[in-house]
Design a protein that fits this description.
Number of domains: 2
Organism: Amycolatopsis carbonis
EC number: 1.2.1.-
Strand order of the largest sheet: 15-18-19-14-13-21-22
Structural class: alpha/beta
Bound molecules: nicotinamide-adenine-dinucleotide
CATH superfamily of the largest domain: Aldehyde Dehydrogenase, Chain A, domain 1
CATH class of the largest domain: Alpha Beta
Keywords: Oxidoreductase
Number of helices: 15
InterPro entries: Ald_DH/histidinol_DH, Ald_DH_C, Ald_DH_CS_GLU, Ald_DH_N, Aldehyde_DH_dom
GO molecular function, one term: oxidoreductase activity, acting on the aldehyde or oxo group of donors, NAD or NADP as acceptor
Number of strands: 25
Length: about 500
């Protein structure tokens, strides 16, 4: 699909969704640009503090009625939203591909994951119970109640998944929402708004596009928001946590990662491990918080492994994101491209470049920041092994001693995910136990399962998404104790 084919299906301009209407107070706009070609796709209202105010007021007004709806009603609406995404997934995926430069091979999966999230929380909503317990002469009940107005801020790398991760549990639990998408990747979320406006009562879901230090900061600091949920960088995550602390409102955070991916010497199928480790580092053009970017390879097979890994990276086809044969598209922006090249320069200074290491040119997509799939041999202490790069750059580290391996794997500020390749059950279980990571995948990286808790240890965040416990984060418990009789008098 090309921009021309899509043009009639994209609006020329997108407004915020506030109180069921597409309107804005801000008169400023910003462009949505094709990441590969630089073509202007649409303009978007640059929401500001006044738009956030209006959206929060609408969400506040809608809250009592929405909180009182039966979970079955909320569930039905989430299923209808999922139906619409399924019916429009191809088009939404093409929009994401142009908006952010990720390949058309990958982006349909984002929408399948999003559908899974809306359906999962549609089901979980109707079974998310509190607690009750008979006590002598009565009952003790703990009732789950929605928290109120939730402010949500998401990044650009997987916009459909991030939107679903935030909206599905918050709405299922009976909260009302103000969501701010990322300024680099708003289009598919704004397209979704057409269906959100049709399905949900006015004010239940509000979406204010705009910049982080404007709409984002206004939402974070807003005095009438009851909970904040953020996905993005650790730097901004800290600002959001501070804002939550100022007003004593709960905050959930999904932040960065620098995940270890560990190869034991007992693996049987070297080629398939290499294929999966390549995928772990290059999926999403490497712009995934989950990416397996530190590959620990055992000394016994290291040299053979590295040679084949280099060939595997060279085989990753870089090209136009809209070409179905492409496996690596372009980074989201020039800023991201320059950041990744800066890390590559740092790697050249203290590590050994195995393959890649430069910007790639793609005919017809000259605007795009395509980065060659890159492998370095390095130490765990190097800058490229310690910091999140968010590009297709893999650090390979040799290991011999098991305890030293575990120490190194855990020796980063993050703890989001980890991979282990082994045919030995004891290696798998013992290593999974000892890694400081929210998700550990044995023998298949990125093995995401609906309902399996997703979130980080250490600097990777606070809270868990993707699972029924997420509904706990979007509700609070109220204890009610019922006594059949008044107590016997105490005072005469
Ligand atoms: P970012 O933190 O700069 O931006 C994320 C969002 O925060 C955007 O919507 C942005 O507009 C907003 N924002 C920026 N400054 C703000 C401020 N002062 N106040 C309020 N909001 C503000 O991150 P990014 O560069 O867009 O995304 C990349 C980062 O996100 C990476 O570190 C990556 O690991 C992380 N990430 C984590 C997950 C996860 O689930 N753990 C998923 C995707 C991305």
């Amino acid at each position: 699909m090309t921009v021309d084919q899509l043009e009639p299906a994209l609006a020329a301009h997108y407004e915020p969704l506030i109180n069921g209407e597409f309107r804005s107070i801000s008169t400023e706009t910003f462009p949505a640009v094709d990441a590969a070609t630089g073509a202007r796709l649409a303009t978007i209202t640059r929401g500001g503090a006044a738009d956030v105010d209006a959206a929060v007021a609408a969400a506040r007004a809608a809250f009592p009625k929405w909180a009182a709806t039966r979970p079955e009603e909320r569930s039905l609406l989430l299923h209808r939203l999922a139906d619409w995404i399924e019916a429009n997934a191809e088009r939404l995926a093409a929009i994401d591909t142009m908006d952010i430069g990720r390949t058309i091979f990958e982006t349909p999966l984002d929408h399948r994951i999003a559908v899974g999230q809306y359906r999962f929380f549609a089901s979980a909503a109707v079974t998310h119970d509190g607690w009750n317990h008979p006590v002598a002469g009565g009952w003790a009940i703990a009732k789950r109640e929605p928290i109120g107005v939730v402010g949500q801020i998401i990044p650009w790398n997987v916009p459909a998944i991030m939107t679903a991760f935030k909206l599905a549990p918050a709405l299922a639990a009976g909260n009302t929402v103000v969501l701010k998408p990322d300024e680099n990747a708003s289009l598919s979320t704004l397209e979704l708004c057409t269906k959100l406006a049709e399905l949900f009562p006015p004010g239940v879901v509000n979406v204010v596009p705009g910049f982080g230090d404007e709409a984002g900061a206004a939402l974070t600091a807003h005095p009438d928001v009851d909970k904040l949920a953020f996905t993005g960088s650790a730097e901004v995550g800290r600002l959001v946590a501070h804002a939550g602390a100022e007003r004593l409102v709960p905050v959930s955070l999904e932040l960065g990662g620098k995940s270890p991916n560990i190869v034991f010497p007992d693996i049987e199928d070297l080629d398939r491990v290499i294929d999966n480790a390549t995928f772990a580092a290059t999926y999403c053009n490497g712009q995934s918080c989950l990416a397996g970017t530190r590959l620990f390879v055992h000394d016994d097979l290291y040299d053979d492994f590295l040679g084949k890994l280099s060939a595997s990276f060279q085989g990753v086809r870089v090209g136009s994101p809209l070409d179905p044969a492409t496996r690596l598209g372009c980074l989201v922006s020039e800023k991201q491209g320059r950041r990744v090249l800066d890390y590559i320069a740092s790697g050249r200074s203290d590590s050994s470049l195995v393959t890649g290491g430069g910007r790639a040119a793609v005919s017809g997509s000259e605007h795009g920041w395509f980065i060659e799939p890159t492998v370095f041999e390095t130490e765990n202490s190097s800058r490229i092994a310690q910091e999140e790069i968010f590009g297709p750059v893999l650090s390979v580290i040799r290991w011999k001693d098991y305890d030293a391996l575990i120490d190194q794997a855990n020796d980063v500020e993050y703890g989001l995910a980890a991979g282990v390749y082994t045919t030995n059950l004891k290696n798998a279980m013992r290593t999974a136990d000892r890694l400081h990571a929210g998700s550990v995948w044995v023998n298949q990286y990125f093995n995401l399962v609906d309902g399996s808790p997703f979130g980080g240890y250490k600097g990777s965040g606070l809270g868990r998404e993707y699972c029924k416990e997420t509904l706990d984060m979007y509700t609070q418990l109220k204890s009610i104790v019922l006594a059949e009789e008044l107590p016997p008098p105490l005072f005469g």
